[in-house]
Design brief:
This protein is mainly alpha-helical. 66% of the residues lie in helices and 0% in strands. The longest helix is centred in the N-terminal third of the chain and has 30 residues, at 22-51.
């Protein structure tokens, strides 16, 4: 879970009444952050769908996500009594569904074909990448706290 300082709620953008909302923030934000990669994937794949001439698919996926969120919000919040965590879970669920629909489209029949084997790392590339990142960390003094 991400770390949020306790003082963040007491002066949220200079507003002193934020102290009572800190518990809601601490419930909501970590769950939303877990769903951020799916949200970014849905946005990127939606742009690809529009570029491929399928703006209705792009719009439809976000519409499906919005409807899923509208249906799941009251169920998770009131029926399951999950409160703010339920709202966050409903939002992440809707983002996942939007991303999955678009991903399936591009894996099966999109004009821009996504192929799984093209995204698997090659061992030879991994080795050179690790060497490059190791040298960058070494040159930048990554983790070296000594006073030279």
């Amino acid at each position: 879970m991400p770390y949020f300082p306790e003082t963040a709620g007491t002066s949220f953008w200079g507003y002193e009444g934020g102290a009572g909302s800190l518990s809601y923030v601490l419930d909501y934000v970590p769950i939303i952050l877990l769903g951020a990669p799916f949200s970014m994937a849905a946005i990127a794949l939606s742009s690809m769908a529009r570029a491929c001439g399928s703006p209705i698919l792009a719009m439809g996926c976000f519409l499906v996500g919005a409807v899923i969120n509208l249906v799941l919000d009251p169920i998770y919040i009131f029926v399951f009594n999950w409160g703010v965590k339920g709202a966050a879970i409903a939002t992440v669920t809707s983002q996942i569904m939007s991303a999955v629909i678009l991903l399936v489209y591009f894996l099966k029949k999109g004009h821009i074909r996504l192929r799984r084997k093209k995204y698997l790392p090659y061992i030879t590339h991994l080795r050179s990448d690790i060497c490059v990142w190791a040298s960058i960390l070494h040159d930048s003094g990554g983790g070296n706290n000594s006073a030279d």
